[in-house]
Amino acid sequence: MAGNTSEAGRVADALRAEIMSGALPDGAKLPSLSTLATTYGVTVDIARQAVGILRAERLVVTRHGTGAFVSRFPLIVRRSPERLARARWEAGEAIQDADTGPRPRTVDVVVTEVAAPQDVAEALDIPAGAMVLSRSRRFVVDGRPVQLSTSYLPLDLVRGTPITYTDTGPGGVYARLADLGHGPVRFVERIAARAPYPAEREALEMQVGGALVYEITRAAYDDTGRCVEVNRMILDAAAYELEYAFDA
Question: Where are the domains of the chain?
């Protein structure tokens, strides 16, 4: 990669050279921000930006409370529409298995009832502000937070079902919707790239400046044409590659 003339770029160039030469091997912990600042004669904020550059290049991962570590993070290839195939969730597979395979993955799940955002209410064909079930997840792969996801589902459909549990069982939400006779048969996804909001940046442990996320909003429809779920996903763009395969 060509050198960067900014102060943060200069520090990133030096650290990148050490990573590429093996002087900082995979798994090695980077010096603290204060040590980097002293070593390279910059401020702590500049040192933080330099680490952010390397993180965006997938050369390091940051772990909350422990620091930054060398890790050539392999891109997560998100293949659509294959990952949403009915055969997968009917067989009890998690959709995320199609993305990450055997890579270590943890998921934090929070289930609650919330007032539906305007666009969600419109998609679910319910009054604005009506209460819906919210399933919020934070996905961590190989120790790196990579995705935030919030599903909104109509309460009249899912109240009292396993969909209200943190663990919905094999096949996840779509398999449980199928148990109810409302399995998805059609999906519509919209994708936008943008800078992360502060809360998203914090949850994904992203450095300030230059980072981007993919915001993907997916609506799932049953065979009657009813929208049975709206899922808003925030993906760290530096961690994902989006692949779409379809017939002409």
Answer: 7-70, 76-244
HEC readout, 126-151: CCCCCEEEEEEEEEEECCEEEEEEEE
Residue whose token pair is 């934090």: 108
Closest CA to 148 of 200, 190, 198: 200
CATH top class, domain 76-244? alpha beta
Segment 56-65 shows an average pLDDT of: 80
Instruction: Determine the angle formed by the axes of helices 7-21 and 44-56, rounding to 10 degrees.
Output: 50
* Residue 38, helix vs strand vs coil: helix
Q: Is 62 exposed, middle or buried (0-12, 13-18, 19+ CB in 10 A)?
A: buried
155-162: long-range contacts (C-beta < 8 A, 24 or more apart)?
A: 155/113, 155/131, 157/182, 157/228, 158/133, 159/133
Q: Are 208 and 52 in contact (CB under 8 A)?
A: yes
143-180 pLDDT per residue, tens: 889 999 999 999 999 999 999 999 999 999 999 999 99
* CATH 3.30.200.20 is held by the domain 7-70: no
Dist CA 87 CA 130 (whole Å): 33
pTM over the 0.90 mark: no
